Amino acid sequence: QKEVEQNSGPLSVPEGAIASLNCTYSDRGSQSFFWYRQYSGKSPELIMSIYSNGDKEDGRFTAQLNKASQYVSLLIRDSQPSDSATYLCAVNIILFQGAQKLVFGQGTRLTINP
Amino acid sequence: GAVVSQHPSRVICKSGTSVKIECRSLDFQATTMFWYRQFPKKSLMLMATSNEGSKATYEQGVEKDKFLINHASLTLSTLTVTSAHPEDSSFYICSAFSPGLVWNNEQFFGPGTRLTVL
Lengths: 114, 118
Hints:
The complex is a heterodimer of chains A (114) and B (118). Chain A has 114 residues and is mainly β. Chain A has strands spanning 4-6, 11-14, 19-25, 33-38, 45-50, 54-58, 61-66, 71-76, 85-94, 100-104, 108-113.
């Protein structure tokens, strides 16, 4: 089982609609969860982080975390063509002696159609 | 704040040569830096974790003698791809982490280096 799994898509959503991106993870001890947006040829850009169960809203973005189900999601409201990108889910894995690493899902390609 | 730079942004080299990529934290001290590699249409794969003043920890399957990592100061880590071959062509991205900067384990990513080996 992969540590972090996402539906690779592509996901196509009409402009103005809600885009829903999902992610599951295997490490029950994980405490930090991130959503990154990556445009082609560019480095990932952090758009949301979440640490507690429930919803966290920031502008048009809402992250949802359910630790019992080991599930993280990202909702994008009022989708815009500029939201078209690959969205990467990342989970912070705590290793021994305090070391840690960020494990990425395979990413979901999102296309917003005008 | 929390800006990470990489140099060069793009490099083309001949097969068999070595290439050095620099990763700098510009406005904070990074105790830990991470090096990732990303092939086209694939996700980021962690290559190694670099702690200032100590040897890097490599992920399984990453050759430490081929990908030399040096983290000599709290603001600079370097990745040297030795004897590069076409299969090493990829997008290399570094990130930096400082536990004193944020409490939420956030990493700050550099802009990436596109390596093409001919």
